[in-house]
């Protein structure tokens, strides 16, 4: 499974756009990129998943460059409730191996 | 539509004891995965159950075992508890359909906080 590297922490202010970048230099051809959000004492929550280029949903956007060695999660106009740990995961799209491999994540703190 | 539920919420055990944690998956889901999350770390995959069989296993000793029932609910058993087993145990459910593209969207429960003293 590809190893991921993310910043340990980030601070932002309410209303700003936040971009969290994840490095995955040894990503395999059939690997997907997935992001999860976790609040204290709660289970992680799926945010978005992508393979290449750009994916957007009602919560966030995911930007993946052509070489796929990194990805950026973009959160538009964050609020205090977006304070959480954000995990970047990389895993294959083949077979039955859907186990999630979490790293240490990025602690995002949104300030008023 | 109930999401993933886990019981109990909190549990305190003594070293050497055994513990059983329970999970009911989200309605319509047939696959259950268990994760261990130590304080300040990301969740670590323990194993996954589908069709009442263990399908995938992470790097955990045999003291960790599980079961899935015909109604898709699942149990996690840990024998001979160690202090290092103190953690938040998370259950996640998903639906396995080979006709659909692979999805890493799993629904997590609130977890069971296990403290071993």
Secondary-structure blueprint:
The complex is a heterodimer of chains A (112) and B (117).
Chain A: E1 9-13, E2 18-23, E3 31-38, E4 45-50, E5 53-56, E6 61-64, E7 70-75, E8 84-92, E9 106-111
Parallel strand pairs in A: 1-9
Antiparallel strand pairs in A: 2-7, 3-4, 3-8, 5-6, 6-7, 8-9
Chain B: E1 5-7, E2 10-13, E3 19-24, E4 31-37, E5 44-50, E6 53-57, E7 64-68, E8 74-78, E9 87-94, E10 107-108, E11 112-116
Parallel strand pairs in B: 2-11
Antiparallel strand pairs in B: 1-3, 3-8, 4-5, 4-9, 5-6, 7-8, 9-10, 9-11
Folded structure, characterized:
- The complex is a heterodimer of chains A (112) and B (117).
- Chain A is mainly β.
- Chain A has strands at residues 9-13, 18-23, 31-38, 45-50, 53-56, 61-64, 70-75, 84-92, 106-111.
- Chain A has a five-stranded mixed β-sheet with strand order 1-9-8-3-4, with no helix packed on it. In chain A, strands 2-7-6-5 form a four-stranded antiparallel β-sheet, with no helix packed on it.
- The radius of gyration of chain A is 14 Å and the shape is globular.
- The model of chain A has no long low-confidence stretch (mean pLDDT 90).
- With 117 residues, chain B is mainly beta.
- Chain B has strands at residues 5-7, 10-13, 19-24, 31-37, 44-50, 53-57, 64-68, 74-78, 87-94, 107-108, 112-116.
- In chain B, the strands form two sheets. In chain B, strands 2, 4, 5, 6, 9, 10 and 11 form a seven-stranded mixed β-sheet that branches.
- Chain B is globular, with a radius of gyration of 14 Å.
- The mean pLDDT of chain B is 92.
- At the A-B interface, strand 4 and strand 8 of A face strand 4, strand 5, strand 9 and strand 10 of B.
